[in-house]
């Protein structure tokens, strides 16, 4: 951004600026777009790593930047239709290139924001999303100011650098105010698991799926649209239990109510075991003793182990 605005300032206040500087300055718009996208990905994804394949997006910048050193003043001959067409084509490509990356980055932020709409957000997540939205709004404002300048001088050229500078100073101020300099995409990773667990727990408790004898990690994962690995990790991290213990724990809580219910005294322990989702009496006894330290019979009779 500094190189880009530097070109604009030199062009406005300097006289007979060499075309090499003009094209070199314009070329920096071709790297600002990819840098913006990489930054947004880094701030919305945990453990982000810049892959070598991403660097391919910097090729347009590298190409125009290198070619800028071979530009000479004859290219700007206003009587040459070819020169005018070439220059106009490059300008349009550069500005549409940046617009595409602003849109691409905005779409990524929108997806994260939409995904968290129905979930509890942390303060860090809210601050980071607000910052990214302001950042993108600033880029849109900068883009508009420069594009309007191209349309028959609708906006004086100096307005572009001024808007650019004001936006950058404002964004810098907001970045420190929101403390986003201390945040990264990890804030979404930790809380993604917490939010995923909320979805899992809601299904398990409200629909009492733990009473189903065939409930499995795969079936729960499918219902929350997550992988079995992520579902298992969310339960381990938030419930401090593995999937089987998590399900069995809730089964035991229901079994305890039945074992102490006077209206249910006529039911055998085996029937209670099957009613609460266990596939066998032995697995019920084993799970009950694990969580309560006594057998179901001892619990029903009020006897300590």
From TrEMBL:
Superkingdom assignment: Bacteria
Pfam families associated with the record: HTH_18
Ranges annotated as spanning the membrane: 20-39, 51-71, 83-106, 127-148, 154-173
Key words, A-Z: DNA-binding, Membrane, Transcription, Transcription regulation, Transmembrane, Transmembrane helix
UniProt domain HTH araC/xylS-type: residue ranges: 201-302
Keyword Transcription: yes
A single MF term (Gene Ontology): DNA-binding transcription factor activity
InterPro entries: Homeodomain-like_sf, HTH_AraC, HTH_AraC-typ_CS, Tscrpt_reg_AraC-type_HTH
Organism field: Flagellimonas allohymeniacidonis
Protein name per UniProt: AraC family transcriptional regulator
């Amino acid at each position: 951004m500094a190189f880009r605005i530097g070109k604009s300032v030199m062009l406005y206040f300097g006289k007979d600026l060499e075309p090499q500087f003009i094209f070199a300055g314009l070329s920096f718009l071709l790297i600002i777009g990819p840098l913006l996208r990489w930054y947004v990905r880094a701030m919305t994804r945990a453990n982000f790593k810049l892959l070598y394949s991403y660097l391919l997006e910097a090729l347009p910048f590298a190409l125009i930047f290198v070619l800028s050193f071979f530009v000479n003043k004859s290219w700007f001959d206003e009587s040459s239709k070819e020169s005018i067409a070439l220059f106009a084509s490059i300008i349009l490509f550069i500005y549409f290139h940046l617009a595409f990356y602003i849109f691409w980055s905005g779409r990524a932020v929108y997806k994260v924001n939409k995904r968290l709409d129905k979930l509890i957000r942390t303060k860090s997540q809210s601050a980071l999303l607000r910052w990214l939205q302001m950042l993108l709004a600033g880029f849109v404002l900068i883009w508009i100011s420069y594009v309007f300048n191209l349309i028959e001088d609708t906006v004086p050229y100096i307005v572009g650098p001024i808007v650019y500078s004001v936006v950058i100073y404002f964004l810098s101020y907001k970045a420190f105010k929101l403390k986003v300099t201390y945040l990264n995409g990890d804030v979404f990773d930790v809380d993604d698991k917490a939010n995923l667990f909320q979805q899992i727990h809601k299904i398990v408790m409200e629909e009492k799926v733990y009473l189903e004898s065939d409930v499995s990690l795969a079936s729960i994962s499918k219902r929350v649209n997550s992988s079995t690995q992520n579902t298992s990790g969310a339960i381990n991290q938030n419930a401090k239990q593995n999937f089987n213990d998590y399900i069995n724990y809730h089964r035991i809580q229901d079994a305890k109510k039945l074992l102490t219910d006077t209206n249910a005294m006529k039911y055998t322990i085996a029937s209670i075991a099957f009613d609460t989702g266990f596939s066998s009496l032995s697995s019920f006894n084993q799970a009950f003793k694990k969580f309560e330290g006594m057998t179901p019979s001892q619990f029903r009779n009020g006897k300590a182990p």
